Amino acid sequence: MIKGIIEVIIYVQDMSAQVDFYRNTLGLAISYPQNQADYSKEMWVTFEPGDCVLALHGGGQGRIGKDSPKIVFGVDDIKSTRKALIGRGVQLGEVRSAAPGVWVCDGLDPEGNAFSIESRE
Predict the structure, then answer these.
(1) CATH no. for residue 29?
(2) Which of 6, 31, 58, 119 has minimal Cβ neighbours within 10 Å of its Cβ?
(3) pTM of the prediction?
(4) How far is CA 3 from CA 6, 13, 34, 59, in A?
């Protein structure tokens, strides 16, 4: 019945700031609507982030808002990516080992939605 994940939705308040963050800061390509000069009035903007995995994480502790879904972006070099994103004003924590050969760094978008960058050896 289920064919796969077709999208992840993030509810936002300031569409312009969020589009700027995901497009210009993180470098994701907008798939709809393209080539808009101003996204502030848009109610639906989509990006093409690449392949996606739905992960069920057993670390939840029933903390509403803190255990909410998180987007994880794959990167080739986590240290250089972290440095570049911090240079663009992104809030990022320290790089940590999540599992053998898996390096993760957690961050927040401008509205406080959690995301991570991850690299694998």
Answers:
(1) 3.10.180.10
(2) 58
(3) 0.71
(4) 9, 30, 27, 26
